[in-house]
Amino acid sequence: MTKRLALLIVAGLLALTGCAGAGEFGAGGRTLVIAIVSNPQMNDAISLSGQFEKTHPGIKLKFVSLPENQARAKITASTSTQGGEFDAVMISNYETPQWAANGWLENLQPYIGATPGYDENDFIPSIRDSLSYRGSMYAVPFYGESSFLAYRKDLFDKAGLTMPAHPTWEQIADFAKKLDDKAAGISGICLRGKPGWGENLAPFDTVANTFGARWFDQNWNAQLTSPEFKQAADFYVNLVRQYGEVGASSAGFSECGTRYAQGQAAMWYDATVMAGTNEDPSSSTVVGKSAYVAAPVEKTPSSGWLYTWSLAIPKVAKDKQAAWEFLNWMTNKDFVQTVGKTYGWNRVPPGCRLSTYQIPEYRDAAKAYAQPTLDGIDAARENNVRTQPVPYTGIQFVGIPEFQDLGTRVSQELSAAIAGQISVDEALDQSQKYAQTVGDSYRETK
């Protein structure tokens, strides 16, 4: 564990840059420094933060908002070294159980229990459980997601195509081929190719799972050159190279979101949270033109992932009660109402609270995707998405500390193959070496 922890810390430190210390006192009172991932839902929260400051006159908020890959590195480095830069951090269900076990996070259960109306039982059970360690929550969810496929109903109707409720990847590849129209600037499908274990590996790992692949066998032997892994990688790379978006090797969630919302893709496989952006009139030209179906499969009953962006308090935070007041504001039922009434109900953070799906205005605005989102989150169980046993937890990630570095390295190889710089075999051969080094360290400690 010491070796693995050191690797994680070093990987994070490589990306760490200077930051003002957390919990500073300013002229207006206490300033909380919050590290947050930059995406539309988080930006909405930042824009509404003045409401929190108004009702908490002794607390000022300072956000450090960064793109996903940069935010992960910075937050990991600060939290793992107990640097104290941040009073609250945005992390996921990948980090939460590991960091709780390491003693890096504050146990939030006492704060939850002392906050009337917070109602932890309102969280979707799979989301709540993924943020818990030994029965206590160590992070609270801002939004939750699985993955599903968005497709343009108008383009399918025009081409005389019918999308099944539970498509296979072979069917999706056939649809992409028929709908790809480079002359009109419309790709058959948009798939992430951007490097990052939370970028292209998220969708790719669901493809690998349903094709029967795994990262390690139960003896921690790396499996990245197995026939199943190679079949999945060949399929993914060929699909995005032939019928995917222009510049796919540098396209992540945000880039695909922009393309799809601007009518430049016939299908998009990604996080269920995408639907709010697709149906937002202020940013999308395809509002009302999409339908949403389950993540495509190959050999398994389902194939979606389970993920949640959440907020946690580092153990070394100076004013934990003030930090909890902010977490409570950003993750409680009232915040959902505030976003819906301020920006529109399509902008509400989804996949988190069961009560959200009982709000009439939200149910009406999200009728195209609310149930597929809930179905995807419910179906995202490890026994539904795998064909072989594994020694780790996680669906679209391997739940070990080294995966931030290992996954990033493998994602870079996959991206290079998508760019045509190397072959899939070359990418997997190098990836196998990276993975075997990690696997060897686990066999040594068994």
TrEMBL record:
<dbReference type="InterPro" id="IPR006059">
    <property type="entry name" value="SBP"/>
</dbReference>
<dbReference type="InterPro" id="IPR050490">
    <property type="entry name" value="Bact_solute-bd_prot1"/>
</dbReference>
<feature type="signal peptide">
    <location>
        <begin position="1"/>
        <end position="22"/>
    </location>
</feature>
<dbReference type="Pfam" id="PF01547">
    <property type="entry name" value="SBP_bac_1"/>
</dbReference>
<keyword id="KW-0732">Signal</keyword>
<protein>
    <submittedName>
        <fullName>Sugar ABC transporter substrate-binding protein</fullName>
    </submittedName>
</protein>
